[in-house]
Amino acid sequence: MINIKKYAAIDIGSNAMRLLVANIIEESSKEAQFSKSSLVRVPIRLGQDAFTVGEISEENIQRMIDAMKAFKLLMKVHKVERYKACATSAMREAYNGNEVVEMIADKAGIQIDIIDGKREAAIIASTDLHYLLKTDQTYLYVDVGGGSTEFSLFSGGRMVASKSFKVGTVRLLNDMVNEVVWIEIEKWIRANTADYEPVTLIGSGGNINKVFKMSGKLQEKPLSYMYLNSQYSMLNSLSYEQRVSQLGLNPDRADVIIPALKVYLNAMKWSGARNIYVPKIGLSDGIIKAMYYGKI
After folding, report:
1. What letter does residue 15 receive in the DSSP assignment?
2. CA 256 – CA 265 distance, rounded (Å)
3. Ordered DSSP codes for 46-75
């Protein structure tokens, strides 16, 4: 006899907002299984507001309210039992972030938690990572967002170090990442991976997922540093318009994909990693699992 629960997660990022609806299949004497029922992505680039002028604009507040109303209706149609909405870097830094949270609660009936980088990394670590981690190997998990990147080092099947840095694709596009930040990231990666060899990267985020999909590889196969570097060069050689028309990239993906690859490539270079695995996991998956297991 099986029991099926429906949970939802709302991820309010700096480049886009996502609603994930998941089925949780419970069966006696077996570990719960999680499967995606629906994923909706809305390209509202909050980071463009938060990182350049310091507040979410009136236009984007209204777009957020409309999106949240739509998400609420979709959750109703899916008969979602529980949900959690988490906002990350852009909402953390916008001085009107808490005001926007109150407006959305009032007008759309959705409660939003603004989480810090450390909690974001911990929630992401609640995903299916343990299925990927071989206990005799070391992995650097890199989640690149629009406003921040979370780095987590796993060895012996457990997390040994984790840190969030204010380097994200929207910040990089707006030339808002100081060279000092890159130096700090390099120091952190080198210091924390120095005693481990070899290191393998695990990458998450919409941009690395897109590059992996374009590669045509099977999910359990990694991408090499050389392949990622060649894709970076290829994308860089094309104009924004060509990336949209020739490669079929979404308009809000065609610009951020290049700075995202720069972060992954640097992480591979500084950790000595030759390969990167790209499982389909992220903050929304982590929210679902953290809810189910009572961690949030």
Report:
1. S
2. 15
3. HHHHHHHTSS--HHHHHHHHHHHHHHHHHH
Lookup result for tokens 């700096």:
14
Closest residue by Cα to residue 263 from 217, 237, 227, 228 = 228
Which residue in the block uniquely carries the two structure tokens 């990694």? 222
Instruction: Render pLDDT for 48-94 as a digit per residue (tens, 0 to 9).
Output: 999 999 999 999 999 999 999 999 999 999 999 999 999 999 999 99
Whether the Cβ atoms of residue 125 and residue 99 lie closer than 8 Å to each other: no
Is residue 270 within 8 Å of residue 183, measured between CB atoms?
no
Evaluate whether 19 touches 39 at the Cβ level (below 8 Å).
yes
Q: How far apart (Å, rounded) are the C-alpha atoms in residues 270 and 83?
A: 38
Residue 242 has pLDDT above 80, yes or no: yes
Supply the mean pLDDT for the chain.
Answer: 93
Q: H helices then E strands: how many in the chain?
A: 13, 11
282 vs 257: CA distance, rounded Å: 17
Report residue 165 as tokens. Answer: 């840095």
Q: Measured between alpha carbons, how far is 90 from 131 in angstroms, rounded to an integer?
A: 31
Burial degree of 82 (CB within 10 A; 0-12, 13-18, 19+)? middle
Chain position carrying tokens 């790209």: 278
For tokens 């080198």, what's the residue?
A: 190
Question: How far apart (Å, rounded) are the C-alpha atoms in residues 119 and 84?
Answer: 14
Considering only CA atoms, which of 9, 15, 6, 64 is closest in space to residue 174?
15
Distance CA 219, CA 182 (A): 30
User: If DSSP codes are grouped into helix, strand and coil, which group holds residue 241?
Assistant: helix
Question: Band of the pLDDT at 130, cuts 50, 70, 90?
Answer: low
Length of the chain: 296
Return d(Cα 130, Cα 150) in angstroms, integer. Answer: 17
The residue whose two tokens read 């949240």 is: 68
